[in-house]
Specification:
mainly alpha; Cytochrome Bc1 Complex, Chain D, domain 2; 3-stranded mixed sheet; binds heme C
Length: 165
Amino acid sequence: MPRTLALQAALLAALLQSAPGHSADTDPMARGRYLIAIGGCNDCHTPGYAQHGDKIPESTRLTGAAIGFSGPWGVSYPGNLRLTAASQDEEAWLTRARGNGLPPMPWSALQAMTRDDLSAIYRYLRALGPAGEAAPAALAPGQAIPTPHFVFVPQPPTTQKTSQR
Ligand code: HEC
């Protein structure tokens, strides 16, 4: 009887392996890439991605941005995720990723992820490897802003045409 069971288990394992599945379900690196894609992380952390999308090669993505987001919190800069992952061990990175910080980073999205998901993102960033420069440090409110920046402050309605094109 145990031999039959073992045979059944082996058959099941073989079937599962040959079943067509998304590699993001099994390979942590592929899962990390997938989570970054559906999380919209490139929009802020990859310079030019919001404008050019997938034309930006993967090898140059997630290197952070020197264009700040200015608001009541001061000015925040999307970090160079590849440098921070390369310089931290997994536990330190997970602690930071589950922590909190300035807008408009969607911290709650990272907090809602499972440990396995965050770990997959970390592995993907490590696989990409370090590249680019560190993003500028955040600025407290009320300081001069030495970089280009988006202003995140609600504006009153206007009757004039707003398009700059
Ligand atoms: C709307 C823009 C925006 C999006 C989208 C975004 N981020 Fe961020 N991210 C930021 C900003 C700005 C900071 C800096 C926040 C601060 O200074 O506290 C940041 C900081 C971080 C940090 C900590 C700094 C570092 O370099 O490690 C991590 C980790 C991070 N983001 C991961 C992600 C991941 C993963 C996603 C996708 C799920 C994502 N971010 C999506 C803007 C964004």
